[in-house]
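Teaching note: in complex prediction, the entire set of molecules is handled at once rather than each chain in isolation. The prompt given to students was simply: 'Predict the structure of this complex.' The entities are:
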Amino acid sequence: MQNEKITPEKLRVLAELAGIKLTEDRIQELLPHVNELQSKIHSLDDLDLEDVEPITRFMADQE
Amino acid sequence: MTQTSDLWKLTITEAASLIQSKQISPVDLIKSHLERIENTEKQLNSFISVLSEKSLAEAKVAEKEIFSGNYKGPLHGMPLGIKDLFHEAETKTTAGSKIYGSDYSKETSYMVGQLKTDGAITIGKTQMHEFGMGATSLNPHYGPSRNPWDTSKMTGGSSGGSGSSVASRQSKGAIGSDTGGSVRIPSALCGIVGIKPTFGMISRSASFAMSWSQDTPGPMTQNVTDCAIMLKSIAKHDPSDYNSAKFTPVDYYKELKASVDNIRVGIPDSFFFDIVDEEVKKAVLEAANVLKSLGAEIFEVELELIEKSLDISTIIINAEASEIHSKDLENHASELDPGSRWRIELGNFVSAVDYIRAQRARSAFVKGLNTTFEKVDLLLTPTIPVLAPGLYETEILIQGKKEDPLPLLSRLTRPFNLSGHPAISLPCGFSNSGLPIGFQLVAPYFKEQRLLNVGLSFENATDWIKQPSL
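The expected output is the structure of the full assembly:
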């Protein structure tokens, strides 16, 4: 996904896809938080994660 | 001999010695702490519920056991605070929310059960940030917990009530839970010892989750020895917790010995000292000097991806918290703390691909940190870059720059939830205004004994364990 700003229209669509109900007021309140989160997500774009597997079940067993 | 009315002042170790020798009874001890709570709770708000009758009844049982020769060890008869997100049968468990806790819990969490097996008594369920979703313990439903060193200041959170109850000696010790620093933050701000063990070492069964891959319960105590006693009780594999680690149990209390010799301590200068109050910086660097004088070798180290760790952590925690609390959002949105609500809503906008990428980045971060631990035995950092903020303070001055204190509270603790490494916060000084300062030691996986032994050495060499005048 490209690092483009989420608009109210796009947030409405994303909320519907996620199955959560948001009023118009709520859309406006959440918008800056969603954009801040998106910028954190995109901050990982420049990492070289070639050959790095995700931690899908985090477990630090000693035995 | 200690006056019965002053028993609340004793540490676990001191009180255990008197109980074992039958000089005092658990009933005397519980009464003393209940009186202490009555005298200070209006100022502190450490508890969501105080279990007066239940704790007294359990103390009478403990008294009979001990006087009939069945002494269970140093936790027998000890009044502890339990963060109100761990279930205990016959208590109400709210998770700091109004949605939960109308009925009594039917089950007891494995971890609380271990403490009870060792004879501990829950004196109350402690105040917390709703669902653990914040580092301030400002709670719109139950009010804020207040710092015993200055009640106009925050305790930090999310285990704020646990921090204030131990610091004020309302309880002998407490259990907190730490997803981004929630044991270590209130420990540092309240001037006590708090350990976040290796991820998976302490069971989270029968408790409210916030982030399955980062939630870690931990003890909060007056000093390192008490911490070792509590950790020994609860650090056990629990098959009912999917993420419970398999490891060889250690008797942290028996193995506790002040020891720093030849310990290599790494200080990550960048990031951890970039935004830090001058008084905090001075106290933490002085702590490093103390360890050096005790025989530690001090090195500067760089931690790979440390700057990215906060973003990685935010993505993962928000996504997990949204799934965990999806029904709460669906059915009780208007009853949630507004801060919890937007956090739960927000995680819905992390895609599966975003989450997996964050987990890949996490993997790279963990690998880098493990490589650092091949060169050093411990890392040393401030626990928190600031002094306890005012309860509703939104701006503080650091290095001549105005900063929002709230994101700073967990800035230095969250990286080690992401990595799962054990970390302890120890008192290392006071500000000119009389507020406690803490520093953090971080160790490789399952090296809690090293944290405790070095912590004990530091504690013995300094004089920072103090009681507020409250």
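Point out the following to students. Chain B has one domain: 20-461. The longest strand of chain B covers residues 423-430.
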